Amino acid sequence: MKLVSAIIKPFKLDDVREAISEIGIEGLTVTEVKGFGRQKGHTELYRGAEYQVDFLPKVKLEVATQDENVERLIEAISSAAKTGKIGDGKIFVYEVEQCIRIRTGETGDSAI
């Protein structure tokens, strides 16, 4: 099992969720986060005063899936989240040692 974690632009969330559903993967966790990468924030103007925004709003998605679905999942997230501009985000893939469904006690792939 793998945990695919993606940091994307907030306005791409619906597109990514739809792309994940289309490939038959159900269930994801979404967290609103802030951060920066190479773009290192930007300057904004508010009531005539200029100020630096160091941490940009992002969305973090986490999807647990079977090993055979990882490549399709990465492709779906990449194509749906891509704008071609700086700050599109990153995808990380982690190994999952164990998964347990609390309600039924199922373990492993069947618990996903």
From TrEMBL:
<dbReference type="GO" id="GO:0006808">
    <property type="term" value="P:regulation of nitrogen utilization"/>
</dbReference>
<dbReference type="GO" id="GO:0030234">
    <property type="term" value="F:enzyme regulator activity"/>
</dbReference>
<protein>
    <submittedName>
        <fullName>Nitrogen regulatory protein P-II 1</fullName>
    </submittedName>
</protein>
<keyword id="KW-0547">Nucleotide-binding</keyword>
<comment type="similarity">
    <text>Belongs to the P(II) protein family.</text>
</comment>
<dbReference type="InterPro" id="IPR002332">
    <property type="entry name" value="N-reg_PII_urydylation_site"/>
</dbReference>
<dbReference type="InterPro" id="IPR015867">
    <property type="entry name" value="N-reg_PII/ATP_PRibTrfase_C"/>
</dbReference>
<dbReference type="InterPro" id="IPR002187">
    <property type="entry name" value="N-reg_PII"/>
</dbReference>
<dbReference type="Pfam" id="PF00543">
    <property type="entry name" value="P-II"/>
</dbReference>
<dbReference type="GO" id="GO:0005524">
    <property type="term" value="F:ATP binding"/>
</dbReference>
<dbReference type="GO" id="GO:0005829">
    <property type="term" value="C:cytosol"/>
</dbReference>
<keyword id="KW-0597">Phosphoprotein</keyword>
<dbReference type="InterPro" id="IPR017918">
    <property type="entry name" value="N-reg_PII_CS"/>
</dbReference>
<feature type="modified residue" description="O-UMP-tyrosine">
    <location>
        <position position="51"/>
    </location>
</feature>
<dbReference type="InterPro" id="IPR011322">
    <property type="entry name" value="N-reg_PII-like_a/b"/>
</dbReference>
